[in-house]
Amino acid sequence: MRRGLGSARGAGLTSAAGEGRLVLLTALRNEERILGTFLDELRGVVERTGFAGRTTLWVVDDLSFDRCAELLAAYGRSQAVLRLEVVTPPTNLGNQGAMCFGLQRVQLGPDDVLVTLDCDGEDDVRELPSILALGREHPGHVVLIERGRRAESLRFKLFFAAYKALFRFLTGRRLVPNNFMLVPGRFVPAFRGSPLAAVHFAYALYRLNPPHVATTRDRRPRYGGQTSQNLFMLVSHGLVGLMLFYEVVVAKLFMTLALLAGGLAGLVVLGLFLPDGLVSQRTLVWCALALGAAGAGALGLLVAAALALAFKLAVYRTALDATAPGGAATPPPAAGGAAPGGAPGGTPAPAGRSAAPGGSPGATAADPTGAGA
Q1: Distance of alpha carbon 371 from its chain centroid, rounded?
Q2: In what helix (H) or strand (E) does residue 180 lie, and over which residues does it extend?
Q3: How many whole angstroms separate alpha carbon 50 and alpha carbon 153?
Q4: If you ran DSSP here, which 8-state letter would residue 178 be given?
Q5: Which of 105, 109, 120, 307 could form a disulfide with 350, with the two C-beta atoms 3.0–4.6 Å apart?
Q6: 93 vs 95: CA distance, rounded Å
């Protein structure tokens, strides 16, 4: 629901000053090699921010086949700085789908703060205090973070620079956000209601146009130095994300196609009516081929990105609906005050495993499906 976005001015970030809770959300799959490093570094940062004992880390275990679940359970029992809540989707949903799945189950009130991030080390958790401070300076605003310097190859940097230029041209927006962001608790119900968060988590929030402040943070090398993604996966993810702004992107792509078609027709006319020797026929042919190739590329981008968007949403909803009780989705948890038993808004505990300090993993009640509820 978008209507809540404009009315929350001044709310939410009071928690960064000590009144509310800090809620963190991340997703992982088969990350046992780096999981301990992430948790230890995050715990140290949380202690320095003054949120020790008032921080909940929600981890979406996206069908890991390694020891991630065991390590998370042991870590939750071994310390009291972070409360761990682990949720498990019914199948592998990918990073964006897993983050959306977790968003539906996160429990927080309007005065709490949600920070979402990747757990591979590339989102620098040491920047958390400065991001919380920026939230305090701009109460009632989302903090969106754009990548600064990157420890990547020259080829990757060139492709990413080209993507950013394409994104800004097609969407008309200057900022290119990512999963690392701060969301005041009062905005979370509106964010939950976006069916597009399963496709691109950050863009789904960005297109809701909440009051926000933008900042830049450098991207660190991954823990262990080896990334699990490649250039093709990242380009594919970015191009599909463009379709979240379909109202503008589709119109601009069709306008581009019309201009290219007009240029192609103009070249044909020139070739037919210009006097011999003024412009070589070969030059006109090559120009026509170039315009035709550009048009085909624009059309291919439109069709491929639209199909990928539709397939991702369909797979996400099908996977969750198949496991929902009775095959029907249930509503997401409210973002209101805490109810008896600790769940905000009187909602049941989330689906998954609770790894609270001193506790042990255990089954909890089923929770909502999410994407398009």
Answers
A1: 13
A2: strand 177-184
A3: 38
A4: E
A5: 105
A6: 7
Alpha helices in 68-227 (DSSP H): 68-78, 94-105, 128-137, 154-171, 188-192, 201-206
Please name the helix (run of DSSP H) or strand (run of DSSP E) that holds residue 214, with its range, or none.
strand 212-219
Using an 8 Å Cβ cutoff, are 372 and 192 in contact? no
Residue type, 266: G
| C-alpha 217: how far from chain center | 16
Each residue of 49-104: pLDDT tens digit?
889 989 999 999 999 999 999 999 999 999 889 999 999 998 899 999 999 999 99
Residue with tokens 């989302």: 142
Domains of the chain in sequence order: 13-157+174-228+325-355 (3.90.550.10)
The helix or strand, by DSSP H or E, that contains position 271, with its residue range, turns out to be helix 246-273
Taken as a whole, the chain contains a residue count of: 373
Distance CA 201, CA 164 (A): 17
Do 325 and 366 contact (CB within 8 A), yes or no? yes
CA angle 174, 179, 180 (to 5 degrees): 90
* Residues with Cβ within 8 Å of residue 269, at least 6 apart in sequence: none
Which residue type is seen at 16?
Answer: A
Q: CA dist 278 to 267, 287, 332, Å? A: 13, 15, 69
Across the beta sheet with 142-150, the strand order is: 212-219, 142-150, 177-184, 113-116, 22-28, 55-61, 82-87, 353-355
d(CA 213, CA 9): 13
- SS3 category, 174: coil
| Distance, CA of 297 to CA of 285 (rounded, Å) | 18
- pLDDT range class, residue 330, cuts 50, 70, 90: very low
> Which tokens is 82 given?
């972070």
Position 353 pLDDT exceeds 60:
no
Strand partners, 82: 55
